Amino acid sequence: MGAKILLASSNAGKLREFQALATESPLPLEFELFPGFDSIPEFEESAPTFAENSLGKALYYSRQTSNAVIADDSGLVVPNLGGRPGVHSARYGGVGATSEQRIEKLLGEMNGLAGTERAAHFICAISLVRRNRALAVITARADGEILLTRRGNGGFGYDPVFFFPSLKRSFAELTAEEKNQHSHRGKAFRRLLAVLPDVL
Q: 38, 72, 73, 198: which is the annotated catalytic residue?
């Protein structure tokens, strides 16, 4: 028997990413954006960890539906910046800052760092909840380093400056299929798929 899972987001691009990954599931899965997501008061992602933000968001939206709800929180961690941008990745640079402005702030803060000092990783936490009950919380990461300048036109967010050593390209230079295979979100989602038959 298949399952309908609502994505706690209004991001159609993120939905397509999850739908593409779901084709690998042993279960027939149907992913949809959460109905009326933008009309619901926004969940405040104020916890100190990605996992807590992800679970809090999933629990918050699950109270308004009988369907299973999935929510994710992800971001970029640079150890030599004390872990910044971290859970503030989407708000780095201030409220309303564009991706370009966030990248500029990141590169400015990393000015003078070289070699292993530019190590970084993306983290993704995905939570699955049904009827206000947590079914799974999964995390995964992708390791790389921050480039000195942007490379590539794909992806979004910090992808143009995140260099992935094993493929010798930035995340913004990867195809959608390559990114799904190697990204933090792709890894976390595959781990979730592995436990779905036991929790749904």
A: 73
50: left (phi over 0), alpha (psi -120 to 50) or beta: alpha
DSSP type of residue 48: S
73 flagged as catalytic: yes
Which of these, 82, 86, 96, lies nearest to 46 by C-alpha position? 86
pTM over 0.85: yes
What would the CATH number be for the domain defined by 3-199?
3.90.950.10
Residue found by looking up tokens 């679970």 in the block: 55
Q: At what angle do helices 12-22 and 184-199 cross, to 10 degrees?
A: 60
Lowest mean pLDDT among 15-24, 126-135, 136-145: 15-24
The answer to whether the CB of 162 falls within 8 A of the CB of 121 is: no
